């Protein structure tokens, strides 16, 4: 299957090289767009063999629509805001789509991509490669098995995203509402938010505090504390920052009969029943010692380094197109993490708790519209401030 990689920067080059090297069974590199000079050496074998290179996604699609090039699928690795229009045009042309995360910057964009994929009958996948890591698959399987009961509490502190000012100065699009569409939630944390809902389920309510430019001279958030509530009464926190050092990445999940802790690539499980002799709820009702200290029976689980997660994602995409398997992460999953980040922004801007909508079209469209109006205000304010700053420096 001839596959074009649209956007050959850092990640796009990685995907293109996997195809070029014949690593993905059933797929070959058919074209690229926006290739940077420093990436040309890595793709020299394909370029020497006449690999078509286009200046833009539009130029690529124009050539395809004119019959000048044959393609079966595209992989999108362009800036977040462009994912949706590129995917929609690909689906309109009957092309399968695999897009980098996040699906877009608004849940409405992700919805449009899902609907276009359904109407076209094409395969649609998203590159949430961390779902292939064995430690997260292990946590997912435990929670969904019900082995230790329902979720009671979770806490994820992800502060190992430290960035100096030079990182944000490396590109004018970085850390802007108009460029990236957000800060740490939209750039660094889509994987974490995807894993959070994949493992623990979609929360029902969000209350967030998104601090914009707390540690860096940027207009978007670089520090976030988010409070989450689930339908069954479980609650949790999600804390992230690009301004804390040394950072940590620690996930705690408390279930009815166990505590799970992920840190440094390992999972520790503290079981209750071996010590208590019965489920915790029963022990709580019947225990005679009013000061009992429950220590838990702890086990540590380590995991072997997995195969290249990106290779696994691309191979799953190819297999579904060929009718031999399924995408690791179907495109319909892309909207869920965006709903959480969109709700977090909305909550912070409006200083209120947000009820995440059920998967009901009318309610979601109302939610999406309100959020996008607030985001457009942020973009307009940022643009005006940038123009004012430019005029001041010129004078």
Topology record:
Layout (H helix, E strand, L loop, with lengths): L1 E5 L3 H11 L7 E6 L10 H5 L4 E2 L2 H9 L7 E4 L6 H10 L3 E5 L6 H14 L3 E4 L6 H12 L5 E8 L6 H5 L20 H11 L4 E8 L8 E9 L5 E7 L7 E7 L2 E6 L2 E6 L1 H4 L3 H7 L10 E5 L7 H13 L12 H17 L3 E2 L5 H34 L1
Parallel strand pairs: 1-2, 1-4, 2-3, 4-5, 5-6, 7-10
Antiparallel strand pairs: 7-11, 8-9, 8-15, 9-10, 11-12, 12-13, 13-14
Helix pairs in contact: 4-5, 5-12, 6-8, 8-12
Please tag this protein with its features:
395 residues, Rossmann fold, Dihydrodipicolinate Reductase, domain 2
Report on the structure:
Helix 4 (83-92) runs parallel beside helix 5 (107-120), helix 5 (107-120) runs antiparallel to helix 12 (334-350) and helix 8 (190-200) crosses helix 12. The strands form 2 sheets. Strands 14-13-12-11-7-10-9-8-15 form a 9-stranded mixed beta sheet. A 6-stranded parallel beta sheet has the order 3-2-1-4-5-6, sandwiched between helices. It is 38% helix and 21% strand. The protein has helices at residues 10-20, 44-48, 57-65, 83-92, 107-120, 134-145, 165-169, 190-200, 273-276, 280-286, 309-321, 334-350, 361-394, and strands spanning 2-6, 28-33, 53-54, 73-76, 96-100, 124-127, 151-158, 205-212, 221-229, 235-241, 249-255, 258-263, 266-271, 297-301, 354-355. The chain has 2 domains: 2-129 and 309-330, NAD(P)-binding Rossmann-like Domain (Rossmann fold); 131-306 and 336-350, Dihydrodipicolinate Reductase, domain 2 (2-Layer Sandwich). With 395 residues, it is of the alpha/beta class.
